[in-house]
Amino acid sequence: MASDCEPALNQAESRNPTLERYLGALREAKNDSEQFAALLLVTKAVKAGDIDAKTRRRIFDAVGFTFPNRLLTTKEAPDGCPDHVLRALGVALLACFCSDPELASHPQVLNKIPILSTFLTARGDPDDAARRSMIDDTYQCLTAVAGTPRGPRHLIAGGTVSALCQAYLGHGYGFDQALALLVGLLAAAETQCWKEAEPDLLAVLRGLSEDFQRAEDASKFELCQLLPLFLPPTTVPPECHRDLQAGLARILGSKLSSWQRNPALKLAARLAHACGSDWIPVGSSGSKFLALLVNLACVEVRLALEETGTEVKEDVVTACYALMELGIQECTRCEQSLLKEPQKVQLVSIMKEAIGAVIHYLLQVGPEKQKEPFVFASVRILGAWLAEETSSLHKEVCQLLPFLVRYAKTLYEEAEEANDISQQVANLAISPTTPGPSWPGDALRLLLPGWCHLTVEDGPREILIKEGAPSLLCKYFLQQWELTSPGHDTSVLPDSVEIGLQTCCHIFLNLVVTAPGLIKRDACFTSLMNTLMTSLPSLVQQQGRLLLAANVATLGLLMARLLSTSPALQGTPASRGFFAAAILFLSQSHVARATPGSDQAVLALSPDYEGIWADLQELWFLGMQAFTGCVPLLPWLAPAALRSRWPQELLQLLGSVSPNSVKPEMVAAYQGVLVELARANRLCREAMRLQAGEETASHYRMAALEQCLSEP
Predict the structure, then answer these.
(1) Global pTM?
(2) HEC states along 367-434?
(3) Could you tell me which residues come within 8 angstroms of residue 700 by beta carbon, excluding any fewer than 6 positions away?
(4) β-pairing, 602-605 with 590-593?
(5) Tens-digit pLDDT profile for residues 534-587
(6) What is the pLDDT at residue 5?
(7) Going from the N-terminus, what domains does the chain have, and what CATH number goes with each?
């Protein structure tokens, strides 16, 4: 063993004989004073030149951790020796050791993190060379630890993030090193950093935002690249909005090269994704700035995607997609929009050209590229456009529909990979923990609103049916429904899941009306009907889910008319439970409400229905019509309705309110149900007569009901 070490030892001695002499003195030291003196000499020799890993390890073997530990924690320095000199010596030794990655992750180094962090903010003479040297060595230690696999986690737990923030804000010696290390920690463990030091990081963000707003030199471009890392995962403080917007306006309003403009577009995209348009001021300056943002984004998208063979800067184009999405939202906002009508018209025209470029790009995507994150991002922006506009680019959209169906099916069938793709999309230009609307984990959810519009039109609907979209949508609906079923915590589900289910229901409603033959012949709709029947009874009982229940009830009632011969609808427990729940939904919409100064009550919306009636009323009227159509097709339904006492309670409700308070469309809906129940079942007619049905029908001019009840 000794013979193996001799060549290396002799080589080290010949290379640095002074260091070897000091190490010898250190080994022979008999007390603390001699050891301290030898350590000073060793440290001086180390700083005087580079040393290799073997020499560094020999220093560590000679010194160990015990004496540096004492130097860092001692409170009593020798006479004439300032306290910080001992600590500086200890830190210098640790910095030397940390150059070895194995030692940088040693427990004896990691447990010094809290002590080292305090040195960054310690007060002292800023011109003291020893203090400056100690700060440099401290940053060297912490940076070395950050470079180890578990180092960032240890630094965050040791309070380093807060210390770095304070060091940067203090603008003392080494503050630039503090910022560099902060950037590294945020890149490695953003969520943990914010969890441990949110107030301090927000203070840094405010400082950087102010610097950004004031910057007149090239530093503003550097800040553009830094700022996205310091945007929090919760919400960007409003006090930063003005500075960030003003800084971006100054940059983007100038003639720039791409390397100067692109970081600004990416920062704007981060802000748009996190805050929507809240960070843009209201008024003329804000509307002009937003129009400029969307214009620049559209130009960038067209330049990148229209030229075949050019290399696409995917991170920049993805950022431009986020800005286009902001433009779409503002152009479709009816109230409190930042844009004036002429600006909206102009931007829609410009965005139409950019969307045309996106379609052109997607038409060229082959199977080998379908799992690439940039394709997912491109489908997302197209989905956002189709959710609001399907009339323009109609031919191009129809041409692309087969690809979109295949793409959505591919990602649906490989759901885990799809989720990973959505995360990669976020990483292209937007932090994965950025607040605001999340990047959905599947392509189909992006396309649902657009497909809802397209299924109303003959041409696009035929393409979607031919490509198998209805079957895919049924499978998707059933999969998503499982997430809301008993046994799952629906409180943690994103709103997008329930919105997606509602949109699926709207698509199915379109197909029921426009393609009834498809509902009757495709087996997937039988499975869908079974799910609707078993799910509605529990759904109508759940607070806050009335709108989804309305969609499910109405869709189920309309499908029941088409599938009335199915064995599942012949009075089975599931079918009886479904219709009982549907009656509950339809019957609880209105109540009698007393009015001051009047003897008669008026018909009013129930409290649960009142706040969402604008979204609910079309479904309610359609549901009443569908229930009416089911009564003659299902002989068991009228007796079931009678047992629920719905016809009796409905007549009682109408008899207790002023006829003038019941709108004509309500009268028609109620009469339709009552007439069909009366025609279908003698016991229903008798029950209605006992409830003063003929008199009520006369008061409301329900001629058909009055005639029906007058018959035997």
Answers:
(1) 0.84
(2) HHHCCCHHHHHHHHHHHHHHCCCCCCCHHHHHHHHHHHHHHHHHHHHCHHHHHHHHHHHHHHHCCCCC
(3) 654, 659, 662, 667, 670, 671
(4) antiparallel
(5) 999 999 999 889 999 999 999 999 999 999 999 999 999 999 999 999 999 999
(6) 37
(7) 545-711 (1.25.10)
